[in-house]
Design a protein that fits this description.
108 residues; mainly alpha
């Protein structure tokens, strides 16, 4: 299963993650002026963390190596930054909806 993870999963995640990060920095006003820490952690954090987390819990043949992998499990916590990214998106959507409603009320 490591062949699929290392030669399909990681490259795909890297390409999609960097594309999403660059798209946000160049096309979305919320992220254009500054670097978003939650967005950056959501892209960078889970890269190796999910693999190592899987080693600690799912693979019986690597049970002897579990303590070695626990240090990498912290990387999975970076996935929680996705919540911060979603919060930023919801706040921006609320701001845009308020702006849209005020424009509609001024036009009427």
């Amino acid at each position: 299963n490591h062949i699929v993870v290392f030669y399909l999963g990681f490259p795909l995640y890297s390409i999609l993650g960097m594309a999403a990060w660059l798209y946000a920095r160049t096309r979305l006003p919320l992220y254009a002026n500054r670097i978003s820490l939650p967005l950056t952690l959501a892209v960078v954090g889970p890269f190796m963390g999910f693999n190592e987390w899987g080693h600690t819990f799912w693979f019986r043949e690597e049970l002897f190596a579990s303590p070695v992998h626990y240090a990498f499990v912290i990387s999975v916590c970076f996935a929680l930054a996705l919540g911060g990214t979603i919060l930023q998106m919801v706040m921006r959507m609320a701001e845009l909806l308020d702006k849209l409603e005020s424009e509609e009320s001024n036009a009427a």
